[in-house]
Amino acid sequence: MTHVTSTIHINRPAAEVFDFIANPENNPQWQGGMVSCEITSDGEWGLGSTYAQQAKFMGRDIVSKFEITAYEPGRLIRGDTVESSFPISFTRIVEPDDAGTGSNVQAIVTGDASGFFKLLTPLMNRMVKRSIDGDYKRLKSLLEV
After folding, report:
1. Which CATH number goes with the domain that contains 6?
2. HSE-up of 28 (CA within 13 Å, CB side)?
3. Residue whose C-alpha is closest to residue 92's, from 107, 71, 72, 73
4. How far from 139 is each of 7, 23, 29, 63, CA to CA, in Å?
């Protein structure tokens, strides 16, 4: 079982940061290895919405379908894979910083590797942590421009 957390401060209002990271179609802009991401449900984005993504991790293609299982507009989004070779759950929490001008962003990712990735379980936490930390550094650079 993989369980990783990452926290970063972004000098951008919380509402703007949340709107960006809650939209999965923005994922290829800031998540390393992300090839594509497409919303697959109709209607307003939120609880119960679905999306599909294609990514590469450790040279392997990972095709996943997600459902949004918790959604607090402006603050929290949680997604769980409903189909994937690398099942994960992610939670992203965005809160205003003490000054009210920036944001504190926390990511929590849990997963249960299977197949090829299960063989690497002892290394997975470090590899996933490094990947997520890199993603959030790219997000910070992208949004603070």
Report:
1. 3.30.530.20
2. 11
3. 107
4. 12, 13, 8, 22
> Distance (Å, rounded) from C-alpha 33 to C-alpha 83?
18
| Burial status of residue 1 (CB atoms within 10 A of its CB: 0-12, 13-18, 19 or more) | exposed
Half-sphere exposure for 105 (CA within 13 Å, toward CB): 30
pTM of this prediction? 0.89
pLDDT tier at 120, thresholds 50, 70, 90: low
Confidence bin at 11 (pLDDT 50/70/90)? very high
Q: 98 is written with which tokens?
A: 């003490």
Q: Is beta strand 76-84 parallel, antiparallel or unpaired with respect to 60-72?
A: antiparallel
Residue whose tokens read 């099942």: 87
For 93, the domain range is 2-143
- Which long-range contacts does 75-82 make (Cβ < 8 Å, 24+ apart)? 75/14, 75/18, 77/18, 77/21, 77/22, 79/24, 79/51, 82/50
How many distinct structural domains can be found in the chain?
1
